[in-house]
Design a protein that fits this description.
single chain, about 325 residues, alpha/beta, five-stranded mixed sheet
């Protein structure tokens, strides 16, 4: 993986392996043979098929010949017959591959780059779930636990889309402020404000026109302001990371200073500290200090989903060396 790609992963708080930072050699041996007709490279045809078959779309942004976590996800989940039997009844599968050596047509490369830019994909694997109109309703990546756990997770995400659609359907029968409230409840069902702000502009515009008292519109304006602040902070971290290789100590100090800014949201503080931990681990090879920064990042946003994953996987990030056996005490005469 290039240094630029690794930087992007770190900035998103995924520095510890949730989006493809693993090595290809860490992947398990290949499992069951995948259904040859399971994956498509054609987004337009897949959306059309999803609409005709009343299914959702699972779009896998992957690096099939270099990304260790992508290979793990494929062999542990996607290639397994138990997964295919359930998931093929619910999803049309699209592979958005960014390989190092695998040949691709210029058309596929252009299409994949377009959708990567549209969804602002920063790490691999990233799994986007879309409805048949191409609107994303959930995002995930590698998850341990095999087919059963992954199916359960996907079913939970589809339940979000179903809840959204139920509110949207009710809104079609309503008018005025009541319609605005139902549309707003449909967007709230997604439980992802950034996703809403990026991809549900027409729905928000409709709400704004119907929301005569302006309360809902004001809330979306506040959300948009928060998202923009987050982007600005990520840009700041990227600028700081520009000197990570040459000056890791200075980079860590600047990241800690950024994390200490007044009024900084907890999730951004967490990301800055996790980045600092990663720089400390990779640049200074100081595992003890890196672990301290990691723990500080975890404590910065204790209730977040990322925190739960970090806690569950800490032993993988900071494996403890086995204690050396003590020398035998000399026998007393």
């Amino acid at each position: 993986m290039t240094r630029h790609c690794l930087r992007s992963l770190i900035v998103l708080g995924l520095a510890f392996g949730f989006s493809g930072a693993a090595r290809a050699e860490d992947a398990p041996a290949a499992g069951a043979k995948a259904d040859a007709g399971m994956w498509s490279e054609d987004v337009a045809a897949s959306l059309k098929k999803a609409a005709a078959e009343k299914k959702d779309v699972l779009m896998d942004f992957t690096g099939s010949d270099w990304c260790g976590w992508c290979i793990k996800l494929k062999t542990e989940v996607f290639d397994q017959a138990d997964f295919q039997k359930d998931a093929l009844a619910k999803f049309v599968f699209v592979e958005m591959d960014f390989p190092n050596k695998k040949p691709q047509s210029d058309a596929v490369k252009a299409q994949n780059a377009e959708w990567q830019k549209k969804f602002e994909i920063q790490g691999y694997p990233t799994i986007m779930l879309l409805d048949s109109e191409g609107r994303p309703f959930a995002q995930t990546g590698y998850q341990a636990g095999g087919p059963a756990n992954y199916i359960k997770s996907l079913d939970g995400m589809r339940a979000v889309r179903i809840a959204r659609d139920e509110k949207f359907a009710a809104a079609e029968k309503a008018a005025g402020v009541e319609k605005a409230k139902l549309l707003d409840e449909g967007l709230a069902a997604l439980k992802n404000d950034e996703l809403v702000l990026k991809f549900y502009g027409p729905v928000m515009d409709q709400i704004s026109q119907l929301d005569t008292d302006g309360k809902i519109k004001a809330r979306y304006a506040s959300l948009r302001k928060g998202i923009e602040a987050g982007k600005a902070f990520q840009g700041k971290m990227q600028a700081i990371l520009g000197q990570a290789k040459e000056d890791p100590e200075g980079t860590i100090k600047k990241l800690q200073e950024a994390a200490a800014e007044d009024g900084l949201p907890a999730d951004l503080k967490q990301k800055a500290l996790l980045v600092a931990s990663r720089v400390c681990s990779m640049g200074l090879k100081d595992a003890a200090r890196a672990e301290q920064l990691f723990d500080a990042g975890v404590a910065a946003d204790p209730a977040s989903e990322m925190t739960q994953m970090l806690k569950a996987n800490k032993a993988k990030f900071f494996p403890k060396k086995a204690a050396e056996p003590k020398a035998a005490e000399p026998e007393q005469k």
